[in-house]
Input
Amino acid sequence: MAQLSDDCFAFGGPMMSVDEAVAIIAARVAPVKEVETVALKDADGRILASDISAPLPLPPFTNSAVDGYAVRSRDLPKGAEAAFAVGGRVQAGSAATDPIQPGHAVRIFTGAPMPEGADTVFMQEDVRLDGEGRVILPAGLKPGANVRPAGEDIPLGAAALAKGRRLRPQDVALAAAFGLTEIEAARRIRVAVFSTGNELVSPGDPRKPAQLFDSNRFMLMAMLGRLGCEVRDLGILRDDRVSLAAGLKRVAGRHDLILTTGGVSTGEEDHVKAAVESVGTLVLWRMAIKPGRPVAMGIIGGTPFIGLPGNPVASFVTFVHVVRPTVLALAGALPQRVVPMPVRAAFAYRKKIARREYVRVCLRQAADGGLEATKFPREGAGLLSSLVDTDGLVELGEDVTQVEPGQTVGFLAYASLM
Ligand code: AMP
Ligand code: MG
Output
């Protein structure tokens, strides 16, 4: 398991910016060392543990990009059409034919190897047949047209996929194109997840009038699943220091990360802080972010601990900024900065300077074709509907104090945050 020193997450400032938080995490979380071999069909989303360079060029051989007629460009008359006899036929998958005869064309199909000597292909749509076995080739085609040279995509030996890449379907395709059947990946990050709160019951259990079903745990487990984690669902812990401490202690050392939600504010019934302090060390991060209240970071028996706020929206937003980079750092992933997409605000907004805010928005196409972000009409951090009925978050930087309708703002799609 990851072993971290006790003061690992300590931070001096009164308020921490999101960038500071991400930098501290990236600098202090040690990636897990274990590597496992993963079959290609299971490789999507995994973090590559070693560099892959091209064991063969792509494409592996020079081939035609179209269905048509292959020729030697130097046989073509300048500025005039030409009639060439068709000698030979080569389709995808056929072994290369004899070298092309001077002044001849070879019938060829997409993906078929170029006959030796041929360097240019006329598309079948651009030629005519004269009924006597000859093909009429128009003037003006550039030498080399419609040919895919060996290695034009990726040359032999080129660096293709770097260690630390979080594999996407297209990356898996590249590994397959190289003929690989498996890749080396960082082993999955093991995360223990608890909810905390006397008011919570698990879906499926009887709910008393003053209780609500625990939703955060399922949201967090789903987000961790998308990050490729192995998730251990540890249910709900009651709001008392002793049982919280016992629950946390039980899982420390056997996971790479302990994640809780709820109980990290400074109210009398927020016991997570004291519980962590009794079994490990804790720092409370006052992050300059809205929604999101203090986030607790700590170490319990060498295992990193993160305590997220209980309000669902705060939990979601702080997950994105604290848990996601931690999980990726634990897996040895290269930093994944998500770049906001410029869109037009269809709302006015006022905010405090020196803190980052996230506004829940829907995207729609305006009459002029531009993309416009409309704000969810209510602001509460407890409104699950505000996450369900929106497409993403508009990120308002620390220096912004107001937004006027029509102003360009940065949009982050939910899918890009997981
Ligand atoms: P807390 O951070 O514990 O003070 O909780 C803040 C608010 O979030 C309270 O209204 C809680 O009832 C609510 N809350 C806490 N944990 C959860 C959870 N796991 N699922 C849904 N709501 C929660
Ligand atoms: Mg609570």
